[in-house]
Design goal:
heterodimer, A: about 240 residues, mainly alpha, about 0% strand, B: alpha/beta, six-stranded mixed β-sheet, 10 helices, about 40% helix
Chain lengths: ~240, ~280
Amino acid sequence: MSSYFTLIGFGPTGWGWQLVAATLMTLAVSAAAFVTGAVFGVLGAWAKLSGGRAVRGAADAYTTVLRGIPDLLVIYLFYFGGSALMTSIGKMMGSQGFLGLNGFLVGMLAIGTVSGAYQTEVMRAAFLAIPRGEIEAARAVGMGRALMLRRIIAPRALRFALPGLGNVWQQVLKESALISVTGMLELVRQIHLAAGSSRLPFDFYATGAALFLLLTTLTGLLFRGAEQRTQRHERQG
Amino acid sequence: MIVSRIAIAAVLALGLSHAAQAKDWKKIVIATEGAFPPYNMTMPDGKLAGFEIDMAKDLCARMKLECTVVAQDWDGIIPGLNAGKFDAIIAGMSITPKRMEVISFSTPYTASPTTFEVPKSMADLPLTGERINLSDKEAAAAAIAKLGAALKGKIIGAQVSTIQADFLKTYLSPFAEIRTYPTNEEQDLDLQAGRIDMAFASSSYLVSTLAKPGGDRVKMSGPFITGGSMGAGSGVGLRKTDPELKDMFDAAIKASIADGTISKLSLQWFKLDIAVKN
């Protein structure tokens, strides 16, 4: 047991710092992907709810395709396909050699694009869950569109969307593991390297599982806190 | 230090990464797996180490190239080469016809011979320690006849769909019973449990097995088998469009084998000379 703590500790033969750095990297790339996805989600939900026929069709195609293909494929498409495309564009512009996106950017965009498709549906459903009477009441007191969005629609929709967004976040956190195929040093890649190099697969894979569980649990608590906060008026009323 | 590393990663994330310049070779990026000891592995401080890391240093000095060695996941390593993420793969990659369809290989630098793993208490098999090259048909046939007689009625384990399993099926199945396993580790467990009499595997793998807990109860025995269907060994993976880089690697590998550098590194990391012999 003490040898296990030496192994994952912070001494000269311990992998502690590497594991901490990789855990933070997983958190960073997941957060970046989730925020990217939120931007796509807001745009997608808006397009589905109030866009014209063409915009709605595009948003439908986006959510159908991105929710229907494996995430790994999206990552490969961005990482390998993206660099082939950029290199050929670079050649046209007269630059020699190879251009490409690095693993972090690819992970953020690829996972973000996929999570955006899920967030679109979450946000659309949240908007539709707002009682119509509240929007009509806002109109009746003469609120403008911007004020209505800020005072009524956004806070009410957020309250309905939070539980769903919490699920999407957990999904993003776990899918960030797929970015290891680009060689980016996030948690799964680091664990794989450590397990292979030390020939102690059980110790390291179990540690990786524990670290992921820690991340999902702690961030889950954050989401639960936020949910309770958005519901506080209802409990009083 | 960690904070600065993350800051650097974040800064890099904002920009585009730019790998090697085409054709006029001064700098190259070499990809390895970083999780396949002792060929290549990662140390607890995050640095790469291993036989191939030292060998790459030697080859780059011979080619007068500035080399950066990066760790890349095995699954993406061939697509990464062809997409231009790096210029060469040095990752214990066996030269196979299937891989030759998509990339080219340098001349091989190591060919880990195949041999038997037996319980320590067992008497040594015939031809122990001798090298048999399957390309030499006559000598190989004589050796197989000798082995076959000694293996009559034994049960031999090997990893499924490997060159080792194919060899057993082709040459030794008339004499012995062959059992295949999904991984080498499972075959080792069955050897320890006594369900099989011996295992047949690559000697570089067996050296690492002997170093593991329980490894003191087994030993290597029988001939070291190379050549022919045992494969061409491991080579440097290169893009098909870079023949001049292949020529440079070929010359450097040949020189490094000729002056004994690769043998020396192999003995240091594998405790066994698996450098290609001509």
